[in-house]
C-alpha cells in the first residue's frame, strides 16, 4: 500500500503551520507500507491541482491531508467535505471566494471513506485528545477534502481518502491568551496512530461519536 500524507503551508498571520511541520516527524513506512509526504499550498486554485498531479504520478492507495484548526483542543478526523467555498480571510494568493460551489457538477458533500470513528478512538486510547469532527469549515481545508471526494468519484475509484485537523503548537499561541495548543510530538504520535489504523482496518466501528449541536 502506498500512502501520501500532505500538509498545508503556513497561512494568514502564522509563520509556521503544524500541518507541514509534523510531516518531518512521520516515519517512512508503517508496517510494510510506504509513506510519502508533501507540503501543499494554502490556496483554493492550486492545492487540489498539486495534490492531483502527485496522485496521478504515483497512484497512491491512500491520501491523508493534514490541516491546522486554530482554537481546537483535539486532533479531529474530519467526516464530511461540503461543496462550498466561503472564505473568512483570503488564501495565500489573495483569493477570497464567497458562497461559491467547488464543483458545479459535484455532489453536495462527500464523506471520507477512512474508518474515522476507529481512528478517533485509537488516538484517544493512546492518551491524546481526539474528537470526530463533522465540519471541516469552508476554507481551503474543506475545499481539499471535498476535492478528494470528487477525485475519488471521478478518477480514483479505489482511493482511500481523508482529512485530519490538528491544533496549534505552543509557539503559535504565546500571544493568543487562552487559545489551546498541542506539542508537535504528540500530534505526530496521534497521526502515526491514525496511519496504523488505516493500514490495519477497512471497516469502521459503530460507536457514539456524534454531536448534539
Automatic annotation (TrEMBL):
Under the heading InterPro entries, the entry gives: Peptidase_C15 (IPR000816), Peptidase_C15-like (IPR016125), Peptidase_C15-like_sf (IPR036440), PGP-I_bact-type (IPR029762), PGPEP1_Cys_AS (IPR033694), PGPEP1_Glu_AS (IPR033693)
Its EC number is 3.4.19.3
Q: What class of enzyme is it?
A: hydrolase
Catalytic residues, chain numbering: 78, 141, 165
Predominant localisation class: cytoplasm
The protein's GO terms of the molecular function aspect are: pyroglutamyl-peptidase activity
Q: Which UniProt keywords apply?
A: Cytoplasm, Hydrolase, Protease, Thiol protease
The catalytic activity, as recorded, is: Release of an N-terminal pyroglutamyl group from a polypeptide, the second amino acid generally not being Pro
Reply yes or no: does the keyword Thylakoid apply. no
The record's subcellular locations are: Cytoplasm
State its role: Removes 5-oxoproline from various penultimate amino acid residues except L-proline.
List, alphabetically, the NCBIfam families matched.
PRK13197.1, pyro_pdase
**What HAMAP family does its record include?**
Pyrrolid_peptidase
Q: Which family does it belong to?
A: Belongs to the peptidase C15 family.
Known partners and oligomeric status: Homotetramer.
Q: What is this protein called?
A: Pyrrolidone-carboxylate peptidase
Amino acid at each position: 500500500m502506498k500512502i501520501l500524507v500532505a500538509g498545508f503551508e503556513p497561512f494568514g498571520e502564522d509563520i509556521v503551520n503544524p500541518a507541514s511541520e509534523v510531516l518531518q516527524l512521520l516515519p517512512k513506512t508503517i508496517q510494510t507500507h510506504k509513506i510519502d509526504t508533501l507540503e501543499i499550498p494554502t490556496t483554493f486554485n492550486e492545492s487540489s491541482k498539486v495534490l492531483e498531479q502527485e496522485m496521478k504520478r504515483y497512484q497512491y492507495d491512500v491520501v491523508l491531508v493534514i490541516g491546522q484548526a486554530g482554537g481546537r483542543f483535539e486532533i479531529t478526523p474530519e467526516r464530511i467535505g461540503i461543496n462550498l467555498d466561503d472564505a473568512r480571510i483570503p488564501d495565500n494568493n489573495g483569493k477570497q471566494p464567497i458562497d461559491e460551489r467547488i464543483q458545479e457538477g459535484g455532489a453536495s458533500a462527500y464523506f471520507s471513506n477512512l474508518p474515522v470513528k476507529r481512528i478517533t478512538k485509537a488516538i484517544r486510547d493512546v492518551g491524546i485528545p481526539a474528537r470526530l469532527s463533522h465540519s471541516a469549515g469552508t476554507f481551503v481545508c474543506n475545499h481539499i477534502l471535498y476535492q478528494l471526494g470528487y477525485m475519488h468519484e471521478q478518477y480514483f475509484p479505489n482511493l482511500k481518502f481523508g482529512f485530519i485537523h490538528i491544533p496549534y503548537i505552543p509557539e503559535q499561541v504565546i500571544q493568543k491568551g487562552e487559545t489551546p495548543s498541542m506539542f508537535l510530538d504528540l500530534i505526530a504520535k496521534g497521526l502515526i496512530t491514525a496511519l496504523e489504523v488505516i493500514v490495519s482496518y477497512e471497516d469502521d466501528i459503530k460507536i457514539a461519536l456524534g454531536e448534539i449541536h
